[in-house]
Structures are given as structure tokens and as C-alpha cells.
Design goal:
- This protein is of the alpha+beta class and about 400 residues long.
- It folds into three domains: about 100 residues, Butyryl-Coa Dehydrogenase, subunit A, domain 1 (Orthogonal Bundle); about 90 residues, Butyryl-CoA Dehydrogenase, subunit A, domain 2, CATH 2.40.110.10; about 160 residues, Up-down Bundle (Butyryl-CoA Dehydrogenase, subunit A, domain 3).
- About 50% of the residues lie in helices and about 15% in strands.
- Strands 1, 2, 3, 4, 5, 6, 7 and 8 form an eight-stranded mixed beta sheet that branches.
- A hairpin with a 7-residue loop joins strand 4 and strand 5.
- Helix 1 runs parallel beside helix 4 and helix 9 runs antiparallel to helix 10.
- The longest helix is centred in the last third of the chain and has 34 residues.
- The two termini are about 35 Å apart.
């Protein structure tokens, strides 16, 4: 069913809606971590606020929001709870990817109101051509949000007798996959990033796209979305800009948590009756705040680049593409350094599970280890291209 959007909220309106949810989402953060999945009430609240429609095509009631909006929304959710913010952000990327498939495939996917699409870019499965499509076998890990999703974008390596192996991207209903509850981690516990398994799953040909074409920014086969600004840029810049807001939110949450506890804290075994009086504390808070400011610069520079080129429909240079990943890595690095500084300043009492800073520290550590978000990997790639070498990754 086509439900064309007639009332699209402004960025300020959607951010305000989500900001009003912060106390509710924060209240569920401990439950979310303990149960290793986002609370159902949080999912429902985000749906009511329109969070899952931000990257849905307008003809299905979506908002087709720009990436600057994604950053501001995710930052508010991440400020409430890192796992919930991460999960919401991850949904936006495969939802955008679903908009590359043929229009009649989108009709099926987006027939579910507030549909949630999870996914991965890791080609850890095999796709065997068969009549009318492919048969997929394999397993994918780190599938954030799978427990609340209806569809998954999977990536598999397709092998045919007369051609080189090629990674393909396919849309599969979650009901066709097996879920392996293996998400026992130190950070981002609440994302429910379980593994999924395909056991001889048939995928029709119209739900399969060659991954290199998508990565190179030549788009998909959708006719209805061909001129939509949000579908003009390549996948990796889109994914990069979609991811960084939750990271900013975690860093802002760490600062809030530290300052909230500050008036009641002294520095044990010193003469400081109040930690707020110590010059060391002044340096730590200022240093952390400046790093958060710097992280915001890189996040918004990334979003402004994606949104400007989306509006123009102009070609991406190689340097712009790798800089998008470098900006994402810089956000992670700076935000993590800010959180680490505030955690170090929080004292022994901060290790209790009732102190939010300990969860935020573990969550941002987990983010920093993500293969596509790792600061060192992204900085090296950027420097490699700046030095005149070809990129050593397809994921740009």
C-alpha cells in the first residue's frame, strides 16, 4: 500500500519529539542492558516519534530525512542510552539500502508500518545461482536490531562457473532466517546484535543486487527513488553519516553523568572537600568538552558533505569518499577520549552498575572496535589516498 507522506516533520520537530523521550529511554537503559535487547516500550516510543520512518521513501509515509537530521536524532537517543541509539542508527542504513531494490520489492518491504530492516556488509555467506534467484547459506554476526526487525539485508559471495566470485546484497525476511542468541558482550549489550543463519534460503532474483555496484555509488534499480536526493550518494558515506550521531550522544551523556554526580563528590585521601574545587577536575572537564566539540565538528562536516552532494547530485571524488570514513573515525576517537577522561575522573564509586558512566564507557569502547568505525583503520585509509595510493578497500 502506498501511503504518500503529506506531513513531514521538520528537523526541529523530530528532534524535539525524541528529546522528550530521553527520560523514558534512560529509565529503560538498565533493563535493556541486562536483557541484551532494546525494551519493547522503547521500540514503540521510537516508532511513535517517527524514528523508523526517517529513511523510508516518502511514498510509503517516510520522511526521507537528510543525514544532519539523523545525527541530531541519534545524538538524543544515544544521550539516553547508547544501545538504543546505536540500534536506531543501524536500522537507518539497511532501510536506505532497501530503497535501492526494484519498486515492487519495496512495496512488499514497506507494506509493514514502521518497518525495521537490519543488516550487515560482511560477505560471510555463499549464494548459489538457481532458477529464478539464488540459494543462500551462511551466517552473519553482529546483526544489531535483529530481534525487532522484519527484514535483513544480507551479503553473500555469489559463485558461478563462468565468472569471478562476486559479493551480492539481498533482502531476506527475518522469518526465513534462524536467530542464534550469542550476544554476550562487554559493551553495547542492549543492541541484541545476535547472529543470523541462512540454511538453504531461496532469494528471488529481484531481491538481489551486486554489491560492487552499490558501493561504487551507481545506485540500484528503483525507478521511484532514482531522483530522491537521499539515494544519490554512495553507500559508505551514507552509512558513515548515519552512524556518528549515537556516538556524539554517548559522549554528551558521559558529560551529563559526570556533572550530575560532581556536587556530591569529594576526592578521597585529599583535602578537597569537593571535587569541583580541584584544578585537575577543571582540566579534565574542559579537555573532555573540547574533544566533544571537535567530534561534533567532524560529524557535522560529514553530514554537510553528504547532504550537499545529495542535493546537487554531483559526483564524489575519491578523496571525499575516504574523508567521509575519516570523519566517522575521528568522531569515534574523540568521543571515546572524552568519555575515557570523564570516566577516569569519576572515581571508584563509578564502577557500580548504578552509575551510568560505567555503561557509557563500555558502550563506546565497543563502538570503537567496530571494523568499519575503527579510528586507526579509517585514518590510515585517508592518509593512504592523500599520499597518492589507491585505496585498499572496496568499502569507500
Amino acid at each position: 500500500m502506498v501511503l504518500a507522506t503529506t506531513d513531514v516533520p521538520t528537523r526541529e520537530q523530530i528532534v524535539r519529539r525524541v528529546s522528550e523521550l530521553v527520560p523514558q529511554l534512560r529509565e529503560k537503559a538498565a533493563w535493556t542492558e541486562e536483557n541484551r535487547r532494546v525494551h519493547e516500550d522503547s521500540i514503540a516510543a521510537l516508532a511513535d516519534a517517527g524514528v523508523f520512518r526517517l529513511r523510508t521513501p516518502a511514498r510509503f509515509g517516510g520522511y526521507e530525512a537528510d543525514t544532519r537530521t539523523l545525527i541530531d536524532v541519534a545524538a538524543e537517543i544515544g544521550r539516553a542510552d547508547g544501545s538504543t541509539g546505536w540500534t536506531a542508527s543501524v536500522y537507518w542504513i539497511p532501510t536506505w539500502m532497501a530503497g535501492l531494490f526494484p519498486d515492487h520489492v519495496q512495496d512488499e518491504v514497506f507494506s509493514t508500518p514502521d518497518v525495521r530492516v537490519c543488516g550487515t556488509l560482511s560477505p560471510s555467506a555463499m549464494a548459489t545461482p538457481t532458477e529464478g534467484g539464488v540459494v543462500v547459506n551462511g551466517k552473519w554476526g553482529f546483526i544489531s536490531g535483529a530481534l525487532h526487525a522484519q527484514w535483513q539485508v544480507v551479503v553473500a559471495v555469489q559463485i558461478t562457473p563462468d565468472s569471478e566470485p562476486m559479493p551480492v546484497m539481498a533482502l531476506v525476511p527475518l522469518s526465513d532466517l534462524q536467530i542464534v542468541d550469542d550476544w554476550h558482550t562487554s559493551g553495547l549489550k542492549g543492541t541484541g546484535s545476535v547472529s543470523t543463519v541462512a540454511d538453504n534460503v531461496f532469494v528471488p532474483a529481484d531481491r538481489v543486487l551486486p554489491l560492487p555496484v552499490v558501493l561504487q555509488g551507481r545506485g540500484g534499480v528503483s525507478q521511484a527513488n532514482a531522483d530522491a536526493p537521499i539515494h544519490r550518494p554512495p553507500l559508505l558515506p551514507v552509512a558513515s553519516a548515519s552512524s556518528v550521531g549515537a556516538i556524539l550522544g554517548m559522549a554528551r551523556a558521559a558529560k551529563e553523568a559526570f556533572l550530575e554526580r560532581l556536587p556530591e563528590r569529594k576526592i578521597t585521601y585529599t583535602n578537597y572537600a569537593s571535587q569541583a574545587e580541584a584544578p585537575l577536575t577543571h582540566l579534565q572537564v574542559a579537555e573532555a568538552t573540547l574533544k566533544i566539540d571537535q567530534a561534533e565538528f567532524h560529524a557535522y562536516r560529514l553530514a554537510d558533505l553528504v547532504d550537499a552532494k545529495s542535493a546537487e547530485g554531483s559526483e564524489w571524488t575519491l578523496e571525499e569518499r575516504v574523508r567521509a570514513r575519516a570523519d566517522m573515525g575521528a568522531v569515534v576517537k574523540l568521543a571515546k577520549e572524552a568519555v575515557d577522561t570523564l570516566a577516569t575522573a569519576s572515581g571508584g564509586s563509578s564502577i557500580y552498575t548504578t552509575a551510568a558512566i560505567q555503561r557509557i564507557t563500555r558502550d563506546i569502547q565497543a563502538v570503537s572496535l567496530h571494523a568499519l568505525m575503527h579510528p586507526d583503520t579509517n585514518t590510515e585509509l585517508y592518509g593512504r589516498v592523500l599520499c597518492g595510493l589507491e585505496p585498499n578497500s572496496l568499502y569507500i
